[in-house]
Amino acid sequence: MRSSNGTGGAGERSEEVIVFPDREEMGREAAAAFARWASEAVRGGGRFAAALSGGATPRPLYRSLAGSPFREAIPWKGVHLFWGDERCVPPDHPDSNYRMAYETWISKVPIPLENVHRMKGEEDPKAAADEYEEQLRAFFGSAGWPAFDLILLGVGVDGHTASLFPGSSVLNQQRRWVAAPYVEKLKTHRLTLTLPVLNHARRVLFLAAGEEKAEIMKTILITDPAEVPLPARLIEPRHGRRLFFLDQTAAAWMNRKRGDDR
Ligand code: 6PG
User: Fold this and answer.
1) pTM for this predicted structure
2) How far apart are the first and last CA of the chain?
3) For ligand 1, is residue 64 a contact (CB within 6 Å)?
4) Is 192 in the pocket of ligand 1 (CB under 6 A)?
5) What pLDDT is attached to residue 11?
């Protein structure tokens, strides 16, 4: 089931919500979209810059990208991988977002290692955020905000995205590209791209699956950000596209809603 509004023309914010039978199909289709966007960007401008999300939801996507036909089809030499956020742990820690992506995907494809730009979760959080921001400025240049070709995002049931959590002062950050907020509910620091960086992406693709995500997806998709200033609801790319790939269980309310309309 596909629904979209806006034409997605240059400069116009558009969004598209696509619902898949299950998370494996969602992962395969997200991999096909990644491959298409990467090929277009490398053909058009020589490189494709994507920021990856963590957690469990992207695993089927990463697994698909590690296999045929995507392993052979994607122009890996022009692909640059970054992270939208990282836990403050070493890269070999079970909680590391880098480790999950590396083991599931990156270690299995011929991407040049210098194209894999890891957030250094093992270092002092503030220093790691400063260092990553320098890496981004070196890659994108410092004029204006960085324009990622794609930023993958997940959503927590509390409405967090990347490591931007509800009520965090980092949501007001309008200068820095990378921050190291202390997350009270997790009793730990995190590394995260800031809201303006997410909102300057050419494309933001949210992936959500599981019935536990249905309620928050309904909130994100049908409420006004002024009423519900949850981090995931504040993602509205200035000049880019906002896409949602959901599995049926995370979109169950849409069917119910359609039922109400009947
Ligand atoms: C992280 C993520 C985070 C994640 C959501 C959803 O580091 O945990 O970047 O924002 O996307 O918490 O996580 P799941 O996919 O595991 O539900």
Assistant:
1) 0.94
2) 17
3) no
4) no
5) 39
